[in-house]
Amino acid sequence: MPKQSTYTAKLPDADGIYHYTTEEDGIWSDLYQRQMTLLADKACAEYLDGVKLLGLKPDKVPQLHDINRRLNETTGFGVEGVPALIPPSRFYELLSQGKFPLATFIRRREHIDYIEEPDIFHEVFGHCPLLTNQSYANFVRRFGEKAVGLGKEYSWHLFRIFWFTVEFGLIDTLQGRRCFGAGIVSSPNETRTAMERGESEFRPFDLMTVLRTPYRIDIVQPIYYVIESFAQLEAIIEEDIGARIRDAKALGDFPPAFEAKAS
Ligand SMILES: [Fe+2]
Questions:
Q1: How far is the CA of 21 from the centre of ligand 1 (A)?
Q2: pLDDT digits over 121-158, tens only?
Q3: 186 is known as an active-site residue
Q4: What is the Å distance from ligand 1's center to 249 Cα?
Q5: Which of 20, 37, 90, 168 could cross-link 24 (Cys pair, CB 3.0–4.6 Å)?
């Protein structure tokens, strides 16, 4: 996540409505249609069902209160509008309360293919559909609770669990391997890298391995982890995560599968 953003979150009017311009609706529409075409045979069924359950529309940036209502009806989860970037402690606190933080701005056309900071397309199209799945929603909320309980010194390792599942997770299904991570489903480049190119390494999800795997946020992922089911995630987060992280720290990180970032 960049330290500073050139975007600022939109604020709602007195009725809770966020106003998007025709150009912004057009950007949503282009992103939505491109990804829905690409994901039809690549995203898992729970994700695609979630897009329908949320009632996402191809031609309009969705309203936060609509997403909130639909999520509440399905799993009791919700969303909360936040500035473009929020501190990790606030992020974890919201997750622990069953609220997904949602940046309300949408990327400019110059960033249509890639934007480092999460915009509303990434947040809603990427993250919210699976929050209609109870196992997945339970996992995300429990992740937040664990993060709040464990505190700052665990947060670096803990976030690797989030990164390799919520952001870049894959799942093996009866129909074959499918993607569900928000960073994959909201980006055409990541979708193709994870599902078509076969250049990356795919590993079965193993908690200790994940906790020892460094990542970089600003490159296509060289390593993906594959789960067997969303129930598996629910079970993993109930483990003694603090003890697992202490073990992972003692064992040390695997060598990074990427070049160090030029500074
Ligand atoms: Fe994200």
A1: 24
A2: 999 999 999 999 999 999 999 999 999 999 999 999 99
A3: yes
A4: 25
A5: 20
